[in-house]
Structure formats: C-alpha cells, structure tokens
Design goal:
Helix content is 31%, strand content 20%. With 346 residues, the chain is of the alpha/beta class. Helix 1 (12-22) crosses helix 12 and helix 8 (149-163) packs parallel to helix 10.
C-alpha cells in the first residue's frame, strides 16, 4: 500500500483528496493536517466523512516525509516553496496542488504571485503534472506540480491544435467559467451566497494568475512564445469549469480535419472524451469525475474554431489529477481509484 499524507486536508481540494484516497485500492491515508482544525476529528469537520476516523494533526512535514511515500500539498501559493527542500525529497515524493512549482520562470512567478520563491534550487526538478501530455516526464520524479483547474481545461482543449500549428497563435481567446469552490473554502465577501447567487461576473480581467501558466505550457507545445487573452468568470454553481476558446484557423479546415488531429492525441486517453459532432460539453457531464470533455465547431464564416472544454475543478482540476499523478509515479494503472462516472443529478 502507498502511504499518503495530506497537508491542508480540510480545504475543498484536500477533502476531495480524502474522498478519493479513502477508496483507492492501493493507497492508505497515513496523516492529515490542518492549520485551522488541528486536533479535531475529521468527521466532525465534514459529516459526510463520518466513517473516517482521522485526527487533523499539527503539520510536521519532516516527520511525514519519513512516514509517507507521497505527500500532497493542498496549500495556498507561496507556502509550499517554504516547506519543500532537498531533505524532504530524499525521503518522499511531493505532489503540490498549489502554484509554487508550476512556472519554471522564477521572474514570471514572482511578478504574477507577488511573493518571493523560496525553493529556487528545487524548481528546475519539478515536472508539470498534466498527465496526458507529460506522462513520460512524470515517471520516476520526486516533485510534481499539479496544474491549476482553468489551466488543465484550457491546455487540454487547445494542445493538439497548437502542437500541429493549425491555429493562429496570436488569436487565442479563452473565456472560462468556474464554480465557486474554485475560490477555496475561506470566507470572502465575493463568494458569499448573496453575492454569487443569481449572478455571473468576470473577475481578474487581464490579470488572472493562471494566464502565464497556460501560456508557458502552450509555448512548449508550439515551440515558440505564446501570448493569449484569458478571462475567468464566477458562476453560481458549486463546482465545474467550462472554457469556451476561440482561435483563427490557418487554413480552411473541415470538422473532419480537426477531429482527426484530436483523435491523434487523445484517442487512447481514457480521461479525455471527445463529444460527437454538434454536441458540446456541459459541466454536469463531468461533475464529480476525473474526465475532461472536449467538443468543437468550425465557424466557416469567420474561419475560426470554437472549442468547448469541461472539467470538474476539484477533480480533474485538482485532487483527481493529483491522484492520477500518484498512480503514474508508482507505476499503477492511471485509472486506479479514479474510474467512476460523473454524478448526476446533483
């Protein structure tokens, strides 16, 4: 059994990790920590986990590294880089669900996140854990940077077309919507019920921190620098990401031409599902699952492609992908512990 530890187990992503790992046939949860609820029973915090007998311990990452085969860090940005060091990595593997190891350019990270990076010596070793694209790079590594939710949906939706240079790389516009859990479990006025119910709003226009992450990874795929427009929106639903992406086509491609390229990259990817022609993804089809649904249409009038991608932000966008990364690290079938359909209705 893989011995796992979760730092930050009482946040939304942390609780999703607990849910998935509890039912994972090859893993067991050794330690869970919480700064806000240390000393409390986990099932007192989350009554839906009444069958789980675990105490939220005070964090001791050095001790956890000696006891766990892998540690999941479900923490805000700027925290993980202060905790992870060479000694920790000599004893365990790290899967960081935060942003600290996603961007390889330190200057870009510090510019967008407004905080110094405290693990510059370790950063080059970190692998961006977008499983379907970086699977071979993930294997055998000590530290994995779990991608963000918006970025997972956006990159997977665009990757084949960017890789094959079928779109104008200067024309990419990403219009994305997220459920409120994407803002975390902290108490903020902007996520109060009265603030989000019966409303939808754009936020952090031209300044969202997932923008450089999307640009960096797509630039690797293209082999050249990409700058794009990304606008996130907050929607009155609990969970889910829907990205609508626009890009100019370089030639007069047909639907069949585009489908052939997507199938080239994703035909054998279990967690990526291409919708039928004329059918477009909905968040309810992926809610509570590790799937990413992708559909598209070719707008002949403007010679643009319009792509829809949908994921569950807490699953494929966070905890599910983290467990998928763990499965790769420990040479398990990637579907292990994750092979469940979406929950509907909910």
């Amino acid at each position: 059994m893989i011995k796992t530890g979760i730092i930050g187990a009482t946040g939304y992503a942390g609780s999703e990790l607990v849910r998935i790992l509890t039912n994972h046939p090859n893993a067991e949860i050794t330690t869970i920590t919480s700064q806000s609820y240390k000393g409390q029973n986990y099932n007192d915090i989350y009554e839906n986990f009444r069958h789980i007998e675990k105490i939220c311990e005070e964090e001791n990452i050095e001790k956890m590294a000696e006891e766990c085969d892998v540690i999941f860090l479900a923490l805000p940005h700027g925290v993980a880089s202060k905790k992870v060091n060479e000694k920790i990595l000599q004893n365990t593997k790290i899967i960081d669900l935060g942003a600290d190891f996603r961007l390889q350019d330190i200057n870009v990270y510090e510019k967008w996140y407004k905080t110094p990076h405290k693990a510059k010596n370790i950063l080059p070793e970190a692998v961006y854990g977008l499983c379907e694209i970086n699977r071979d790079k993930i294997k055998g590594k000590r530290i994995i940077a779990n991608p963000g939710c918006y970025t997972t949906c956006s990159i997977l939706s665009l990757y084949p077309l960017v890789k094959e240079k079928m779109i104008d790389l200067k024309s990419i516009i990403i219009d994305a919507k997220s459920g409120v859990t994407g803002a975390g479990r902290g108490v903020f006025l902007s996520t109060h019920y009265d603030e989000v119910n019966e409303s939808i709003k754009a936020y952090k226009i031209a300044s969202h921190r997932h923008t450089p992450e999307i640009e960096e990874q797509l630039s690797y795929a293209a082999g050249e620098n990409i700058i794009l427009s990304f606008t996130p929106h907050l929607t009155p639903m609990n969970r889910g990401i829907l990205a609508t992406i626009y890009a100019g086509l370089k030639e007069n491609y047909s639907y069949g031409d585009i489908k052939t390229v997507y199938e080239k990259y994703y035909k054998n990817e279990y967690f990526i599902r291409l919708t039928k022609e004329g059918v477009f993804p909905e968040t309810k089809w992926v809610k509570g699952s590790n799937f990413c649904d992708i559909g598209f249409a070719v707008d002949k009038r403007t010679n643009r492609i319009i792509i829809n991608g949908a994921i569950d932000n807490l699953n494929k966008g966070a905890a599910g992908q983290a467990v998928q990364n763990m499965n790769i690290l420990f040479n398990l079938d990637e579907k292990t512990g994750l092979d469940y359909p979406a929950i509907f209705p909910v």
